[in-house]
Amino acid sequence: MAGPSLWLTTLGCAKNQVDSEKVTAMLSEAGYTWADSPENADVVMVNTCAFIEEARAESVEAILELQDRKRADARSVVLGCMAQRFGSDVESALPEIDSVLGLDRYGELVGVLDRLTNWEPVNLTRRPVMDILHATGRPVSDFPYAYLKVAEGCNKPCTFCAIPSIRGKQRSRRPTEIRAELEGLVTAGVGEVILVAQDLAAYGRDIGAPGGLPDLLAFLSDVPGVRWLRLLYLHPREITDRLLEVMTSSPLVTPYFDLSLQHASGSLLRAMKRPGNGEKHLNLVSRIRSMSPGAAMRSSFIVGFPGESDSQVEELADFLVEARLDWAGFFPFSPEPGTPAAVMDNQIPRDIAMERLRHLSDIQDELTAKANAEWVGRKGLVLIDQVEEGVPVGRTYRHAPEIDGVVRTDSGVPGEWLEVEFTAAFGHDMEAVVA
Ligand code: SF4
Q: Buried b vs exposed e over 248-284: b needs ≥16 C-beta within 10 Å?
């Protein structure tokens, strides 16, 4: 007999997305089924995000929306970072929720669902539930790409960030385990795999893998069927010559550098407990370009950090113009409870931070549009992700999924790799025809 049906809404980052996929695989193996809508589910679940205030508001909204949509007799469960960070607050604020399970209690999830649904599986041998970080089972991806989490947690002291208090210290996975999951993804038809972790380039330090990420990339480089290995979240302090050599010489690793630089002002970066300054960042950018002339670069930046002056904003603006990054993401500073930066003097009013953010985004939008326009008339390889309103939509090595622009082509089906000629660029997006 099929088990009770579940619904899972996932919020937040790629790492949370991987957690949801692993929870899905774990619960399917435990005999549960999946409803096609919250209205048809016996249990509705939300995998929440708690990184910053906006993310928490979005999580509460998603929880309340499912409460409205679910059947009166259906049960509800809250998972993820908000459950981990504010578990008891969530329970007292939302007493109608049946269970709130933080990340380190996922091992109890099957038992909790059995109790909530009064379900006793018959003729079903269940394997002991393992820490989902180490689980390799994943449902088949809807897209020709998938994220692969190689480690959990972070040991860095960034003064604005609550992630170490939510996800704990860094725990790297064994290379053989990562390889097994990669092989599983490829067998399931995935051609591009994106390696993620909170502090990806620090991979392996905690498990005595001195060669770290470069060795892991070398170890994964002969897995048949992978076409692109992409890396996200590279802390500038961890970008070594060896990592750059492997990234720029491997035929598998996309020359795509996701640099979390955060600002260009040396004094602000020191207050963030982050390395570098504008000059050092420019040296890193030109070092990458000298090793890989076609390299694509993206970075995230925090705007409105306590004490930030107009001249420091202009310092960042000047850096953007000189660095000519392909993409950038700007985030308003969020005073996260429990972080050192939340209690620093000279907090910047929100409206000023947003004004600065718009100013910097406008500058970057022009640079991104220019970088895309330089590809018009050239040829390149595109992976088709999906078809939107009859138009095939894909990406090149320069485009990470869900955060960068896209390429619309004149033909192609999801999962297809196409040699194209780029015919037009519109801001973040491009058009191309099959060559
Ligand atoms: S490296 Fe990233 S996840 Fe780690 S503390 Fe810094 S910002 Fe947070």
A: bebebbbbbbbbbbbbbbbebbebbebbbbbeebeeb
pLDDT of residue 45: 98
Q: What are the pLDDT digits (tens) for 185-220?
A: 999 999 999 999 999 999 999 998 878 999 999 999
How does pLDDT run across 313-335, given as a tens digit for each residue?
A: 999 999 999 999 999 999 999 99
Residue 106 CA to ligand 1 centre (angstroms): 23
**pTM above the 0.90 mark?**
yes
Q: 338-377 in b/e burial notation, b at 16+ Cβ within 10 A?
A: ebbbbebeebbeeeebeebbeebbebbeebbbebbeebee
| Residue 122 in this model has a pLDDT that exceeds 90 | no
Query: Which amino acid makes up residue 329?
Result: G
- Residue 59 beta carbon below 6 angstroms from any ligand 1 atom: no
CA–centroid distance, residue 287 to ligand 1 (Å): 24
pLDDT in tens, 130-182: 677 777 778 777 889 999 999 999 999 999 999 999 999 999 999 999 999 99
Q: Which of 16, 155, 199 to mutate to test the pocket of ligand 1 (most atoms within 8 A of CB)?
A: 199
Nearest to residue 375, comparing CAs of 296, 321, 300?
Answer: 296
Q: Are 18 and 149 in contact (CB under 8 A)?
A: yes
Would you kindly state where each structural domain of the chain is located, as residue ranges? 5-117, 145-373, 379-434
Looking at domain 145-373, its CATH architecture is Alpha-Beta Horseshoe (3.80)
CATH architecture of the domain 5-117 equals: 3-Layer(aba) Sandwich (3.40)
**Fold of the 379-434 domain:** OB fold (Dihydrolipoamide Acetyltransferase, E2P) (2.40.50)
How many CB atoms sit inside 10 A of residue 382's CB? 26
CA-to-CA distance for 165 and 153, rounded, in angstroms?
A: 9
Q: Under a CB-based contact definition with an 8 Å cutoff, are residues 222 and 250 in contact?
A: no
Q: Strands, E, within 26-69: which ranges?
A: 33-34, 43-48
Closest CA to 139 of 2, 19, 6: 19
Atom of ligand 1 nearest to the CA of 161: 8
CA diameter of the chain: 69
Burial label for 72, CB within 10 Å (0-12, 13-18, 19+), is: exposed
